[in-house]
């Protein structure tokens, strides 16, 4: 499912640390699949999985072996994964920063697709001006505004129906350094044929089509899920895909006020269908992940636990930040070398911010 806005990864990277989540590509990317897979079964514990097991699980989802290995390597360089080697075996787990980011993102996905809060009829307007030689900064700002639920009414003028939070304000200040103005108010309708309604900043027809495509894709599978006929690799593949697809909706439809939307808006039916498929496949998918990981370890795999939508709303994280598979092993884990990370960031910056 391609976003009509061509937005990047919904999990925000505000530049405050070395963690760089993967860029959202058209379609499903190996890095996105790998990140979703690890989050779905190890987010609570940050359990380590053998690299061979991760590759095996990704190839079952249609990723090539080379693509799976490249995805793991790039996620490690980004700071999303930490690696450890014992003899000839290498293992990877989510970094603390990535686990916190994904837990927050998972919560946001579910809470952002609930019934919208009452709307006071006002709009928050973000106006900015950046010189042409700061094109990368402009693109980073636009990406951040998308993640915050804003859309461009005009070039350099973005809007949202909701208040700008304190955290969002701080993030924008880091990116703009005084080149942005924020204010809130009601639209003064001119009555002219050229008067553009603020809701037109979003492509409502395109969002409707994406909801309809999602419902068409997953409704037919639901009876099979409910009757337990989807298991093994098929359960893992479907669960990863439904999450990788549904997680884009909060940015496409950031709780737009129902008063401004066509009758029968499909946000709630899509959310209910997602929950039914995602939760319904949790147990068989977890069992299969355990079985695959077990083929590459000498002992029973620990820390593999599928979470549900209720867990995502509550906040999926281990309070201590350390799962059973991590105890006593921190000394063997490595994050990317800072110098190498800076070199790669410099080399890739233009592509990452498009």
UniProtKB/TrEMBL annotation:
Residues 117-188 form the Transcriptional repressor PaaX-like central Cas2-like domain. Gene3D superfamilies: 1.20.58.1460, 3.30.70.2650, Winged helix-like DNA-binding domain superfamily/Winged helix DNA-binding domain. Signal peptide: none annotated. It comes from the Bacteria. Residues 321-341 are annotated as: Disordered. It holds the Pfam family PaaX. Residues 32-96 form the Transcriptional repressor PaaX-like N-terminal domain. InterPro entries: PaaX-like_central (IPR048846), PaaX-like_N (IPR012906), PaaX_C (IPR013225), WH-like_DNA-bd_sf (IPR036388). Residues 202-290 form the Transcriptional repressor PaaX-like C-terminal domain. GO terms for biological process: DNA-templated transcription. Coiled coil: none annotated. This is Transcriptional regulator, PaaX family.
